[in-house]
Amino acid sequence: MQHWNESHEYFTTVPPLAPVLSLPARLRLEENLFTGRGVCIALIDSGFVPHPDLTQPVNRILRYYDAVEHEEHPLPPAETYIRSWHGTMTACTAAGNGFLSRGLYESLAPGAEIVLIRTMQDSGRIPTSVIVEALSWCIANCKKYSINIVNLSVYSDEDDFSTDHPVTRLVEELTALGVVVVAASGNNPAYPLRPPAVAPSAITVGGLDDKNTLHLPEYTLYNSSFGKTPSGALKPEVVAPAIWLPAPILPGTPVATEAAALCALDAMTNEMIEQILPLLIGYTSLPPELVQSHKPLEIRAAIAERILAEKIISSHYKHVDGTSFAAPIVCSIIARMFEANPKLTPLHIRNILISTAVFMKGFPRERQGYGRVDAVAAIKMAQRIV
What we know:
three-stranded antiparallel beta sheet, alpha/beta, 2 domains, Rossmann fold, disordered N terminus, 16 strands, 17% strand
C-alpha cells in the first residue's frame, strides 16, 4: 500500500492491511464448477450468530440446535456472545459466501446448506456430555436435514484413546449412517489427541502453513497435534491450511467498530487523517495523545501497528489460525466432492482424500498423515467413482 508523505511523494510501507489469499485461491479452486450445492454440513462448535455470509442474499442455515439448553430454533441468536466467535468463523470457513467482501473471502462451498449446533456453556467450557448431546442430535436428525458432513472443531475433556469413549462411539455410529465426520486434530504437538480426533472413522485434519503464498517450496507444517487411533493407525490423515485464513469479524461488536474505524483511517490522505482522527479515535484502542501528534507518519505507524495486532484484513474480516479452521476447509472440499458425485460413501471420501494427498518431503509422516490435501485431484477422482 502506498501513501503520500509531506513532500507529496510516494513512500512505501509494509502494508498494514496485508493481503490474505482467499480459500479458493490457496486451494487452486477459483473456478466455480462446484459450490457444494445440494450438500448439508453440520457444524458442532462453540456458538454462532446468523452472519450475512451465511444468510445473504439467501439464508442457507437449515436449523440451529442449542445442545446446552436442548432447544431448536430456525436461526442462532442475533445477539453476540464470546462463544459466538469461534463457531461463526468455522461455519463461514466451511460454507460462507463472502457476502460482506463481495465474494472475495468466500469458502470453497458457498452453495452448501448448514446446520449449526452450539456446545459451549456460559462458563466457557465444552464438556464431553454436551458434545455427546450434539452428536446424538445429529444421529437423530441426519436424515431429516439431509446432513452429509459433520465438522467437529471441539474436543472432549478426556485423553481417551479407546473405542468405548462416548464421543468416539457416536462418531462411528454417525459414519455408519453414511455421514462423513471431520475432526480438527488440535494445536499442540506435545499434547495427545482427544476424541473425536482419535475416532477411527473420523477424517482427522492437521495443519499446514502455506505462508500465505502459492509457492509450494515454502510450505511447512503447522504446530498441530498428532497421535494414533485405538487400533494404532496414525492421525491426522491429511493436513490443510491452518494459518493466514480469512474469517469474519462479527457485526455489531466492538471489534467490528474498531476495524471499520482503522480501515477508514488507513485509506485517508495525510490531510484527511489529521482532520478525521479526532472523530474516530474514540472508536479505537489507539492512544488518545495521538491526536496531538500532527505527524502523519507517526499516526500511520500507530494505525498499522494496531491493525497488525488485531490481524485485520478488511473492515469485516481478520485472519485466524488453528486446525479448527483446517477441518472445515476439508469439509468444504468434501461438499464439492458430494456435489460432483452424490453416490459417494464415507469410505469413498476417506480413500480419495488419502490417495490424492501430496506427501510433504522432509516432514515426519506421523505429523502429516498422507500429506497435504489436494482439492483439485480429490474432486476429479470423486467424479470418476461409479
